[in-house]
Amino acid sequence: MILFLQISLIVLSVLLVLLVLLHRAKGGGLSSLFGGGMQSSLAGSSVAEKNLDRMTLFVLALWVICIVAVGLLVKIG
Q: pTM of the full predicted structure?
């Protein structure tokens, strides 16, 4: 069980970093690297940004749950 939680923690950590880097910042962020034309079409759409925010928060919640579970299992065992 601890091995599964540790592997999922690593996967969620990498996914969380990628999701945070995809967010549009003042300078465009890494999302501007995937094509300027696509950025201009997504810049006016707040739906894409809202969905990215929701996915980031969902992955963050799973990440926190995994950290707490690993901490509890290490404390018990």
A: 0.74
